[in-house]
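Researcher: I'd like a candidate sequence for this fold, 283 residues long. If you have to choose between options at a position, lean toward the conservative one.
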């Protein structure tokens, strides 16, 4: 090749600086690059465009999924439930409104029977009212301890569904086995959290001995003579919590999301349907 032919061939010059002669090729695109455009890599040199593409690909590889980026691990639902319950307890102690708060939120099966006094919200609002400072303090301490582990594991919507369905289960069993009894407290919902944690832990292969011991101790305390504890609310909440925990454990895949939702709806509808029994027997 003659000198004029060499100078007329653009492949002998840097593609980014056509006035600069070079004999070095980019190892990825094989275009000619001058020393200013060369970046040394383990396999040779590459041009700026190939370097940018390589860095972009590496960044996308390291980037976590959108769910991992946007998910907030803080148990905000747990905190909200604790705050709401605590505020309700304080309001119940006020001389003017206290009596109204307790009388309109506590549960009694008489208010879920077909009658002019039908007040179905009491099935869930029973979790907001408590008999004493120790009562609310112990329940909120348990909710805080369990919620910090369960809520980040399940997600906020599932955790709230678990809490509410467990509370509903406790109220329904009270209506079935202790009609006409006044009940207050979040113990049924807390037992539901314990039951769900036990089932989910077993499914994941975790050591659930401590949870089993805690359930056993609470069960003994529940049935102590003169304890004044509604064992129906505890057992009802615990059983429903275990059932919901099993649903969560067996429908973890993304493709099972719709199935999971319908199963939770079925649990709620089934519990409400059970209220027909006290309506027929005691109504």
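Model: Candidate sequence:
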């Amino acid at each position: 090749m003659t000198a004029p032919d060499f100078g007329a061939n653009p492949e002998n010059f840097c593609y980014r600086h056509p006035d600069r002669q070079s004999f070095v090729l980019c190892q990825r695109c094989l275009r000619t690059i001058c020393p200013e455009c060369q970046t040394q890599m383990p396999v040779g040199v590459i041009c700026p465009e190939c370097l940018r593409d390589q860095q972009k690909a590496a960044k996308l590889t390291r980037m976590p999924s959108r769910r991992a980026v946007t998910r907030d691990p803080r148990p905000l639902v747990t905190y909200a439930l604790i705050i709401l319950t605590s505020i309700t307890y304080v309001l119940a102690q006020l001389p003017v409104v206290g009596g109204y708060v307790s009388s309109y939120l506590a549960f009694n099966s008489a208010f879920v029977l077909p009658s002019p006094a039908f007040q179905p919200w009491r099935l869930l609002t029973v979790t907001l009212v408590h008999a004493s400072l120790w009562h609310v303090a112990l329940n909120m301490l348990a909710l805080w301890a369990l919620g910090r582990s369960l809520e980040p594991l399940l997600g906020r919507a599932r955790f709230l569904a678990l809490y509410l369905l467990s509370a509903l289960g406790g109220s329904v069993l009270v209506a079935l086995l202790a009609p006409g009894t006044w009940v207050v407290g979040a113990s049924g919902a807390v037992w539901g959290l314990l039951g769900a944690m036990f089932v989910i832990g077993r499914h994941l292969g975790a050591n659930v001995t401590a949870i089993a011991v805690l359930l056993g101790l609470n069960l003994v305390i529940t049935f102590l003579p003169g304890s004044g504890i509604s064992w129906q609310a505890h057992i009802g909440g615990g059983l429903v919590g275990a059932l919901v925990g099993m649903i969560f454990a067996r429908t973890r895949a993304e493709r099972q999301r719709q199935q999971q939702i319908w199963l939770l709806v079925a649990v709620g509808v089934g519990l409400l349907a059970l209220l027909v029994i006290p309506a027929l027997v005691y109504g």
